[in-house]
């Protein structure tokens, strides 16, 4: 069975996916920001807990070191699930806009740091994205959103970056296989710390119309346990660079198909997290 790291697994769909993967016999590494909740999920699934705050790239590097030590340098799957809609514009200690860092730059860096371990295993990367990426208008020259910031815009840009990342992995990180997926609009605590108008969807009466943790977590688990080239759910093949809308092949935005934008965001992301250019370009 596989060794699988799930980030954002202290609650919500990450916790569900961790449980389902453990039930299938996989070794599950549980990463989250809250020490108590992360430890609780890890204990429940018979896994190992790792604590990291993705607003700090030093924590991302420490997480990678800890995972490499725990796995002896062999990891089959990275399920980058952590993310969220944050509030007022904030610049992290690393100099990045916080929403972009948590949702995109942190998993971008983590993938690079674990790339050799992933190549030693099955080489699978699953990125939780969102249909919100259709509203993204990301500018490689202004990743920190100096102009026109709003929580919703920052989130849409970050989710577009997720989809662009999945499309760029094959060219930039040979030997790895990546997909992005929209889990549905999930009825969790997601968005509760945000000032975005979207918070009323998650906290108001429309909440009853949302997808459940269980359904979305099962989708994440199916993708994480899938095999590139084979069906991961009936009639839907696991395809490098694909964007899935829940359990079907999704229609990514026009910008997600822009190869120049894939390259530009890859290079800008590499610069933002301090990866030498030779690792951030072909």
Keywords, please?
alpha/beta; 10 helices; single chain; eight-stranded mixed β-sheet; Rossmann fold; two-stranded antiparallel ribbon; 282 residues
Describe the structure.
The model is unreliable at 205-209 (pLDDT under 50). An eight-stranded mixed β-sheet has the order 3-2-1-4-5-6-9-10, sandwiched between helices. The chain has a two-stranded antiparallel ribbon with strand order 7-8. The protein has a single domain (3-280), classed as NAD(P)-binding Rossmann-like Domain (Rossmann fold). With 282 residues, the chain is of the alpha/beta class. The protein is globular and about 45 Å long. Helices cover 42% and strands 14% of the residues. The chain contains ten helices and ten strands. This is SDR family oxidoreductase.
Short description:
The chain is an alpha/beta fold.
Largest sheet: 8 strands, mixed
Give the SSE order as H and E letters: EHEHEHEHHEHEHHEEEEHH
Number of discrete helical segments: 10
| DSSP summary, beta strand count | 10
> How many domains make up the coordinates?
1
Give the C-level CATH assignment: Alpha Beta
Enumerate the strands of the largest sheet in spatial order, edge to edge or round the barrel.
3-2-1-4-5-6-9-10
- What is the CA–CA distance across the termini? 32 Å
User: Strand fraction band?
Assistant: 5-15%
CATH superfamily: NAD(P)-binding Rossmann-like Domain
Gyration radius (Cα, Å) is: 17 Å
- Tell me roughly what share of residues is in helical segments: 40-55%
Question: How are the SSEs ordered, and which strands pair?
Answer:
Elements: E1 3-6, H1 12-23, E2 27-32, H2 35-45, E3 48-51, H3 57-71, E4 77-80, H4 98-113, H5 115-120, E5 124-128, H6 151-172, E6 177-182, H7 199-203, H8 213-224, E7 231-233, E8 236-237, E9 243-245, E10 248-249, H9 259-273, H10 277-280
Parallel strand pairs: 1-2, 1-4, 2-3, 4-5, 5-6, 6-9
Antiparallel strand pairs: 7-8, 9-10
């Amino acid at each position: 069975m596989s060794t699988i790291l799930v980030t954002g697994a202290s609650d919500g769909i990450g916790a569900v996916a961790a449980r389902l993967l453990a039930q299938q016999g996989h070794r599950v590494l549980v990463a989250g920001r809250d020490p108590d909740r992360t430890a609780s999920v890890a204990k429940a699934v018979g896994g190992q807990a790792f604590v990291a705050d993705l607003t700090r790239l030093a924590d991302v590097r420490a997480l990678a070191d800890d995972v490499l030590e725990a796995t002896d340098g062999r990891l089959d799957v990275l399920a980058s699930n952590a993310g969220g809609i944050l509030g007022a514009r904030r610049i992290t200690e690393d100099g990045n806009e916080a929403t972009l860092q948590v949702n995109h730059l942190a998993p971008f860096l983590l993938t690079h740091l674990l790339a050799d371990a992933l190549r030693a295993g099955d080489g699978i990367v699953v990125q939780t994205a969102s249909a919100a990426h259709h509203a993204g208008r990301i500018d490689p020259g202004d990743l920190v959103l100096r102009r026109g910031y709003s929580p919703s815009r920052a989130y849409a840009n970050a989710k577009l970056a997720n989809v662009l990342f999945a499309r760029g992995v094959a060219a930039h990180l040979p030997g790895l296989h990546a997909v992005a997926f929209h889990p549905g609009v999930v009825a969790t605590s997601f968005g509760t710390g945000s000032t975005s108008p979207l918070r009323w969807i998650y906290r108001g009466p429309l909440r009853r119309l949302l997808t459940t943790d269980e359904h979305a977590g099962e989708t994440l688990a199916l993708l994480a346990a899938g095999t590139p080239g084979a069906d991961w759910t009936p009639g839907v093949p696991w395809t490098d660079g694909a964007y899935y809308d829940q359990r079907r092949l999704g229609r990514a935005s026009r910008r997600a198909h822009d190869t120049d934008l894939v390259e530009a965001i890859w290079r800008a992301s590499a610069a933002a997290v301090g990866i030498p250019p030779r690792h951030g370009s072909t």
